[in-house]
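Field reference: "sequence" (input) and "structure" (output). Example, ADF-H domain-containing protein:
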Amino acid sequence: MAGNLIWFLLIGNVVDLLSVTDDLGRAGPANAASGMAVHDDCKLKFLELKAKRTYRSIVFKIEEKQKQVVVEHVGEPAETYEQFTEKLPADECRYAIFDFDFLTPEGVQKSRIFFIAWSPDTSRVRSKMIYASSKDRFKRELDGIQVELQATDPTEIGLDVIKSRAS
């Protein structure tokens, strides 16, 4: 796991350097987010989840050709955690938000907003690089994230992990 993190950091810096030129080789602004814009719908859906609890989850995808992060899926308020994790592809990277409800040991109902950086081992190296180098900027656009998880396989985002990180 630590080796993967070092790999992502090194590759992320290379991607940042490569993003200084566009597809035609023209110089452009270097961007710590590898040139990925965030579609307004991403921020809108997140605000609706956070403030109105309109959704239980949101899955985001980077559209490489459009160079932007877009909403791929929203989960209705009744969606379970298992239904949410089924929406994460086995071999492609994604960002995801899940609003997790739980009871404290004192019996108080609470919720935590989780940000999940999903980067399965079986996904393409280029995709892992782009998602890793774009993550921090994307997260800054979503004010109100309470817990962050980085996962490469389903065991790292199991319900037991979520419960342990919620309190």
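The beta strands are 37-38, 57-63, 68-75, 94-103, 109-118, 147-151.
The radius of gyration is 16 Å.
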